[in-house]
Amino acid sequence: MMSSTKRIALLSNVTVDLVVAKLRKRYECYIPEGYNAWAMEALNHTAPLYAEKLDAIVIMLDGTEARAWKSYGEALERVDAWKTATRALIENTSEIPVFITTVDFRVNRIRTLAERSRRTELENAWYQFVQELAETTGRVYALDLADAIADLGRERFYSNKMWYLSGSPYSRDGLAVVARELTRALDAAFAQRKKIIALDLDNTLWGGVVGEDGLEGIQLAEHQEGQRYYDFQRQALEMQKRGILLAVVSKNNEDDAMNALENHPAMTLRPENFVAKKINWENKARNLQEMARELKLTEGSFIFVDDNPVEREIVANELPDVDVPPFPDSTELLPFAESLWFDYCRPLRALEEDRNKTQMYQAEAARTKAREASVSLEDFLAKLQITVEIHRMRDDELERVAQLCGKTNQFNLTTIRYSQSELAELANRPDCAIYTVRSADKYGDAGLIAVLILREEKDSAMRVDSFLMSCRVMGRMIENVIINEIVNCYREHKVIRARFIPTAKNAPVKDLYERLGFSLVGEQAASKEYQLDAQRFQYRENPQFKSIKFTP
């Protein structure tokens, strides 16, 4: 789901009116006036394109016109012109994501077997250009439309009739593929992505019923009949490596199921790849509810995958926020896995914290057990042996900080959504300071978990512009340590100001500043204003923490 309708620019060298008609169900679209006018508009910094308030830009180039290019030299000139216009577009915009398609060049095929085809060279040159932009800007993403064309087949994707009549090269099937690929890419930027896939076992991760067929009798192998399940597991593992959590929800004897997970030679997914397992004979909807509670996830974070239509219907009826896709014929498990990724899970990119999510959630489960066994919060914190490191934001942390600013809701005092470019600008201003916080304990490294942005005001007071922290570490008093160190560092400014702006989700921190010693000095319906006398502030030791390191 998207919080509001996003507006995109669709720039192309072909007619895209029919594409826009399909996208308009979910996105508002801007297209330049005039056929193939995108490059001229991109090169003109006063063009209407740059006056638009856009959330994303798509450059979708088609290679059909290559059939009319007279030589390889002309082809290179055309591609260079595309590159020039694209560079200008990147230079004249900031913050928003830019999606650039790969190109299927339809070069002239009238040639002898001995003559050289330049199609692959042109496609590779364009792809390398887009990838270089992606690596240097951090907001450009390659959209592999050429790969989707290859999957469908050129004969089905293109329509010569449509090309000659309207300047649009797509058949009805081709148009559907283009709309699907653009929607998937835009959803990666704007739609709420699923966090966890809850998987059945029998006839889902392997063929057959392990309790009846035994370890030797289930279908799972790297070849022939069992390979369909092996390939499905391999794709699930690839998703897990990119930050998607995997879980097991299975009606089974736990010993039989764990024996298969631990000991079957072709099992790609092992117990350590799952963040949680519910292997019992209970109602699967209740198992999912319990799992969501234990992992501190919403039910809307889940996808439920099960071969049994009765189980799927029960979960869909009892837990309407859980996505329950239809289960395919077992021969189609590989494309089914890909559809889960593209339609529900794929983010714009995976950061190091995302790749370590499974280990982080497993460590959190261990902490929950330790908390339940502790006599008090202080006892629990002392057992954790928490380390906290606070320092100015480093360049290599910028993307993670932007990610936290974009998605943190519960522990977020102002919910200001700074973009990556805005954060970079703030970090270079002499009146601003961005601090990042990393934490670890005996169960593992939590990574970069909090951000605090300070601004110096005209009267030399310091303002806490933003204060946000991952919900994974809420309840460990790390926020006390952060404010303690920050205020102690900025005593010379005499006054520290802060603001709380309530939202539908940040109620857990509504009284945070009061608890940390700030005084309420102003209150309106939309915000509360706080102030702290930094020179009278009493620095507090935190002996329950193993170590605290602060670098101004």
Give the tags.
Rossmann fold; 8-stranded mixed β-sheet; 5-stranded parallel β-sheet; 3 domains; single chain; Aminopeptidase; alpha/beta; 552 residues
Mean pLDDT: 93
Q: Determine the number of helices (DSSP H or I, runs of at least 4 residues).
A: 21
| Major beta sheet, strand line-up | 15-16-14-13-12-11-10-17
Low-confidence stretches: none
Can you count the beta strands? 17
Major β-sheet profile: 8 strands, mixed
Oligomer: single chain
Distance between the termini: 40 Å
Describe the structure in brief:
With 552 residues, the chain is of the alpha/beta class. The chain is built from 21 helices and 17 strands.
Structure in words:
The chain is α/β, with parallel strands linked by helices. It has 3 domains: 6-190, Rossmann fold (3-Layer(aba) Sandwich); 196-350, Rossmann fold (3-Layer(aba) Sandwich); 375-550, 3-Layer(aba) Sandwich (Aminopeptidase). 40% of the residues lie in helices and 19% in strands. Strands 15-16-14-13-12-11-10-17 form an 8-stranded mixed β-sheet, with helices on both faces. Strands 2-1-3-4-5 form a 5-stranded parallel β-sheet, sandwiched between helices. Strands 8-7-6-9 form a 4-stranded parallel β-sheet. Helix 1 (17-23) packs across helix 8 (172-190). The longest helix is centred in the N-terminal third of the chain and has 20 residues, at 72-91.
Write the layout of secondary structure elements.
Elements: E1 6-12, H1 17-23, E2 27-30, H2 38-43, E3 56-60, H3 72-91, E4 98-101, H4 119-137, E5 140-143, H5 145-152, H6 154-157, H7 160-166, H8 172-190, E6 196-199, H9 210-217, H10 227-241, E7 245-251, H11 254-263, E8 276-280, H12 284-295, E9 302-305, H13 309-318, H14 333-345, H15 352-355, H16 357-372, H17 377-384, E10 387-392, H18 398-407, H19 420-427, E11 432-441, E12 444-456, E13 462-469, H20 478-489, E14 495-500, H21 512-515, E15 519-523, E16 528-533, E17 547-551
Parallel strand pairs: 1-2, 1-3, 3-4, 4-5, 6-7, 6-9, 7-8, 10-17, 13-14
Antiparallel strand pairs: 10-11, 11-12, 12-13, 14-16, 15-16
